[in-house]
Amino acid sequence: MDNIRNFCIIAHIDHGKSTLADRLLESTGTVSGRDMQAQLLDNMDLERERGITIKSHAIQMDYSKDGNLYILNLIDTPGHVDFSYEVSRSIAACEGALLVVDASQGIEAQTISNLYLAIEHDLEIIPVLNKIDLPGAMVEEVSDQIMDLIGCKREDILLASAKEGIGITEILEAIVNKVPAPGGDPNAPLQAMIFDSMYNPFRGVEVILRVFNGTMNKGDLVKFFNTGKTYNVDEVGILKLNHQPVKSIGAGNVGYLVSGIKEAREVKVGDTITHVDNPTKQAIKGFEDVKPMVFAGIYPVETSEYEELRSSLEKLQLNDASLVWEPETSAALGFGFRCGFLGMLHLEIVQERLEREFDMTVITTVPSVQYHAIKTDKSIIKVNAPSEMPEGNLISHVEEPFIKAQIITKSDFIGVVIKLCMDKRGTIGNQVYLTADRVELSFEMPLAEIVFDFFDRLKTISRGYASLDYELIGFRKSDVIKLDIKLNNDKVDALSAIVHRAKAYEWGKRLCVKLRELLPRQMFEIAIQASIGSKVIARESVRAMRKNVIAKCYGGDITRKRKLLEKQKKGKKRMRQIGNVEIPQEAFMAVLKLD
Amino acid sequence: MELRKGYLKDEPVESIYFGGGTPSLLEESEIRLLIDQIRENHSVERDVEITFEANPENLSIEYLECLKSLGINRISIGIQSFNDLQLKYLNRNHNANEAINSFENARRVGFDNINIDLIYGISEENTIWQANISQALDLSPEHISAYCLTIEEKTVFGNWHKTGKLLGINEETGASHFESAHTSLSKAGFQHYEISNFCKPGLYAKHNTSYWKNRKYLGVGPGAHSYDMNTRQYNVSNNALYIKSLNGGNFSSKVEKLTTIDKVNECLLTGLRTIWGCNLEEINNKHGIDLLEKKIRSINHLLSSGLGKLDKATLSLTTSGWLIADKIVSDLMID
């Protein structure tokens, strides 16, 4: 146990976390040059392309120093606010953290909130200033920020360039020297925490865990604390590049267990594993049932693909337990599913994975947060979709979720950032200068306002120099109403949205304009209307198609012409017919693109 | 022609068309050889229509007389416009005077079935187009083909468009030019019988009509297409390769076998361009596909919005339907 070091990497997107992880794997010989590929831990295509970590990953490295062999468990964490709970559990599995900061960018909000999490869990923080080779590197300045933040000395900060391989040995040395060996008693009752899971179609769910006390052996009968389910441990192992079965995993170590679990839902991140005989008395603190923050309907473009969509969602859920869904019916779109997501990025990821991995073409309806409609008898109706909002006379009032947002930006942009947050119904709290020109601003604002394009707009107005982190702080009374969209007098429920009354007119107008751009012209004019109840508040129209015919169609043109029109027809398949209007897939996401 | 003589399965030839490219490059003897070959390999109907396509600058009295003597009985002149600026803009080799002269020459030589090709949608204003129509009517041709200028990628016009040498027009202009052609020519006694074709009563272009009425045809020459009701074939379009394959005594073409679905879709796409429309009952009898049942919603919409007509089982489009025929056809197509 003395030779084990468990650590994670805290870094903002693009600050070089994955590249650093790659270098550590290489220089400890965990992966040979032949198996090496960039961002090795981000093994989802989507992660590689977007350069972000979506799932947690863990990998074990061996490192020799002074004749001793050390086991280094690197626990890679997702890098987006949507996944902050997963991050907190990964942090709870470690004793140390590398704080990686891009020397040309400085510290960002996401880094700070994760850093606080790490400090809360008493992790030893090893500050690493990355990308020092870049011409724009501000080594002095960013070092000052780090020293302010964690109260370390300048000489504690390691200078590195993961890309160039600079400082890698120093980092490994620091992990061994500074990160404490795990505590825990190998002879105490078993206490292990789940911090991730993976689905393997042949073996079922692989549970990734950290043992705090006791020892888990192959063949043990174990119990999951929160679900109460028991399992036979078919296999335990350690997380080398390829999983390597072992007889047992002792206190302090990280590994996996396989038990033929079919349902990812049974494996909850943060849950405690113990023995059925001689169980631990105490679960590991910090477990939460992950709750979705954003809801949206997902429908197949082809109505006949409903069952296929269901089975795709089921398979997706096998390795994404945070995705929840239930069947839903829409007058406009037919049968589909109301899905709950951790946030907008999670929604996008699910949509993209459905398209890529399952070849499904789907329509996603207007995302919404969960509102509470409070009835006159004080009972609460949870409203996840505009269609579930009860009529005004049936309820006393509506409450919506509020968040506390932390935004870190350059002081030059304070004005525009405050204005943006005010526009989004925010109220400003603290303003803290982290350094002379970096400010941390706190706001309280409705979650619904940041669901849409808030983050993009924040980035734009601050020219990239702003970062955001938020946490839910509760529900507050709010004057929201349901806004409906009609196309040629047919209500399109999938385009309905719940919006604040003060913003309804603006919203309705902009949505109508956006739809006018996105709806292809058809044989007839299309009237677009936005209404609250029966009152129309905005209207636009798409003029009828005037001319669409090829001039010549003689003997040599027929084949080509037929194929051309067949192609047009195929394009139509990505559209949904509502009443007599064809609506392209992207129109349903129009609300996300209102500027 | 020798190699392909079996293609039409002894069916008599009703029409012959010299077109696609510049047939007026041919000399008298060459044209004679071709016609003789056709007569040798096929039975040719007594009232066969033989059309010769040419640009105005090539239609001298002498050349026209030679065409006449060869039995050619229909001339199609690529006039495009009677406006010199437009002709220049389109990079044509003739001017308005030559256009008028070529027509008058043809008449003088005795051709009583002449087509004029015109192009609209060249520029936004309608006055030049109106003037072009009037000028064409003054000549009193038997047939007028009026095409909207089409700018397609990877063509000469496409490249000009890209470099700004050729401007596009907006959809509304194209539509209004189409409508004014329909109005003016109908008033002058022409029948608007296909989207781009007008004729004096009964004087349809026999040859082109056969494309829309699903008749067999044999195309000869590089890039030429042929159709035998079951397949469409197209010859290799590279001249050198074409000649090489012929010299080798084998004939090189691509063959596309038509499925039932293809056949039905082609009926829609060709038939609905004409006043004769598509006989849905005939399609059902022949191919076992009941469009009236399958596409009832779309068809009803066409009828109620004045874009289409249904006469017994024959569906056809109105003039306003023709303007968006591609959209309508792609909606009606089956898969």
SSE blueprint:
The complex is a heterodimer of chains A (595) and B (335).
Chain A: E1 4-11, H1 17-27, H2 45-50, E2 57-65, E3 68-76, H3 84-92, E4 96-102, H4 109-120, E5 124-130, H5 139-150, E6 158-159, H6 168-178, E7 191-200, E8 204-213, E9 215-217, E10 221-224, E11 230-232, E12 235-239, E13 243-246, E14 248-250, E15 254-261, E16 272-275, E17 294-300, H7 306-318, E18 324-330, E19 334-341, H8 344-358, E20 362-364, E21 371-375, E22 380-383, E23 395-410, H9 414-423, E24 427-435, E25 438-446, H10 447-451, H11 454-461, E26 466-478, E27 480-487, E28 490-491, E29 497-500, H12 501-518, E30 526-532, E31 535-542, H13 558-573, E32 575-578, E33 581-584
Parallel strand pairs in A: 1-3, 1-4, 4-5, 5-6
Antiparallel strand pairs in A: 2-3, 7-8, 7-16, 8-15, 9-14, 10-11, 10-16, 12-13, 12-15, 17-19, 17-20, 18-19, 21-22, 21-23, 23-25, 23-26, 24-25, 27-28, 27-29, 27-30, 30-31, 32-33
Chain B: E1 13-18, H1 28-41, E2 44-54, H2 61-69, E3 74-80, H3 84-89, H4 96-109, E4 114-120, H5 127-139, E5 143-148, H6 156-163, H7 171-187, E6 191-194, E7 197-199, H8 206-212, E8 225-227, E9 231-235, H9 239-247, E10 253-257, H10 260-271, E11 278-279, H11 280-287, H12 291-294, H13 296-304, E12 308-311, E13 314-317, H14 319-323, H15 325-332
Parallel strand pairs in B: 1-2, 2-3, 3-4, 4-5
Antiparallel strand pairs in B: 5-7, 6-7, 8-9, 9-10, 11-13, 12-13
Helix pairs in contact in B: 2-4, 5-7
